[in-house]
Amino acid sequence: MKISRKDFLASGTKYAAGAVVGAAMVEGLVSNAKAGPLAAWPYPYQTLDPEKVRILGHDLYYSRGCSYGTFAALATACKDLIGEPWTSFPSEVMVYGGGGGAGWGGTCGAINGAAAFISLVMTGADATALESEVYGWYTQTKLPTDISNQYGREQKYTQNKYTQDLLQNISGSILCHASIAEWCKAAKFAESSTERKERCARLTGDVAAYTAKVLNDKFASTFAPLFVTPTIIAECKMCHSATITAKMECTQCHGDHRVGTTQVEELGGVPVGYELENNYPNPFNPRTRIQFSIPAAATVDLAIYDIHGRLVRNLLASEHRESGRYAIEWDGKDNAGGKVGTGSYFCRMQAGGFSATKKLSLLK
What digits encode the pLDDT tens for the residues 20-37? Predict the structure, then answer.
């Protein structure tokens, strides 16, 4: 069969295109064959060093953000110990979580990355329990932690953007926008500041370290959850649908609408320094008086914790106070207005760079 030069050229073009596509398909198949089958889920896990993970999380925050920082810190530690499948896993998939999810201010990227990692090494109810613990710990812990501030001062990170202590506060919420806004308001730094970015870097390291701790405990069969859903959540159902199974307090966004909030008494006199005095009476039932002094205007946090370190009552939550001597009463109730049980509690005060803790005993 004779074909014209025009037909030959047209056909040749089709055959050439087909050859290119075919070659690309073969190359893809070969590439996939080299990569091997996908790893079985859940991924393998070995005991991690929380402090190594803390430093990795802080430093990786400056690479691709908080969500990536937490996840990649844990994944990198596993890669160093285990190798595959961690060596091939693209931690970059977690970049989206930065800024509360593509900058939308939703769930904090640090705990988003933590939950994703937990779900990769654990399944079902066990994974949910650990994720809930990390979320709850995040809402009730002063962040950045003392150890993160210490690492910053001692320049133990490889990314030393800021080498002073940062104000610590309790977010009360897993939401990025609430957590950052509350900290910026208390610390008096702009969201765009170096200090705020370093706060999130240290927080990312803290979340990664705590995630490693609870995973270590779980795999060692020693995990005991500390987070208990605040009883104030029952009040939230008055506004929100009863079908919502939320565990967050609402005061960060909606204010404290509860009856019986604590009042601070100004005692007068000139303080000579920062001081948290022993409460009186102690032991007590049902009330005790706590006095404190600040020599200069400062943001004051005063809170009651139980023996497990769980927040019981916020007496002063990042409240600005002028220089002076003050007194406040604790009525033996938690943040929801419920009476706490007999036992030992701790009152912790933070103001400026000052921090002190006193032990209280409630007897009934």
Answer: 334 343 344 334 434 456
Lookup: tokens for 223:
């995990």
Degrees, nearest 5: CA angle 270-356-252: 95
Whole-number Å distance between alpha carbons of 97 and 93: 9
Number of folded domains that form the chain: 2
Pair 302, 203 in one domain? no
How many angstroms separate the CA atoms of 293 and 285, rounded? 24
Q: Name the residue type at position 273.
A: G
| Range(s) of the domain holding residue 66 | 50-219
Q: Is the dihedral of CA 329, 185, 73, 129 positive or negative?
A: positive
* 174/306 same-domain check: no
Domain boundary among 159, 189, 219: 219
**pLDDT tens digits for 200-228?**
999 999 999 999 999 999 999 999 988 87
CA 216, CA 240: separation in Å to the nearest integer?
37
The DSSP letter of residue 98 is T
The first and second tokens of residue 297, run together, are 């205007």
| 196/140 same-domain check | yes
What is the CB neighbour count within 10 angstroms for residue 262? 15
CATH number, domain with residue 340: 2.60.40.4070
Query: Integer distance in angstroms from the first to the last C-alpha of the chain?
Result: 107
Query: Do 315 and 196 have their domain in common?
Result: no
- CA–CA gap between residue 351 and residue 271 (Å, rounded): 14
Return the pLDDT at 37: 65
pLDDT at 5: 47
The torsion angles phi and psi of 94, rounded to 5 degrees, stand at: -90, 0
**Are 210 and 302 in a shared domain?**
no
Is there a single domain that holds both residue 213 and residue 310? no
**Inside any domain, residue 268:** yes
Task: Please report whether residue 113 resides in a domain.
Answer: yes
In whole angstroms, how far apart are CA 268 and each of 57, 141, 278, 298, 327? 46, 32, 18, 17, 10
**Ramachandran assignment for 130, one of left (phi > 0), alpha (psi -120 to 50 degrees), beta (any other):** alpha
CB 282 within 8 A of CB 347: no
**How big is the chain by its Cα radius of gyration, in Å?**
27
Torsional sign, CA 59, 64, 67, 72: negative
